Amino acid sequence: MSDEPDHSSPRPARIAWAAALAAFLPFAALAAALLATGRTSAMSGLLADAFKMWSAIVLAFLGGIRFGLDMRAGPADGRALSIATLAALSGWGAMFLPDAWCIPVLMVAYGAHGAWDSLAAFRGEAPAWFGNLRIVMTLLIVAAHGAAFLALA
What we know:
Layout: H1 10-37, H2 44-72, H3 78-94, H4 99-122, H5 128-152
């Protein structure tokens, strides 16, 4: 019996989709709140900070997923593992930027990471459902970042 998980089963995909959609809820709620309150609201700074923090946390989580996929793929590739850590570093670094730069930097990081993950699934380095999940979630998260940016512009 193999120690490898059965990725052909629909159960991991369902759990991952549910978790991803739950992780998207703060993005949607905070972007909507930013749009509703506007940048001059007393709450806009707190809402923007909450959005940026959640974004950096999820981006770091995605980097961890990539790190795990790369470790699982076989002999450790130092370059791939180093690139996987860029997600956490870019999220953390973006936190020091003004909102006008932070949110677009995070948006670009999500787009790049989503493309990298979906290509990995296309190449067979991750389950096919993971590629589909990452495409859909990347589009949703990038859209939420766009809404947050417009609200703060």
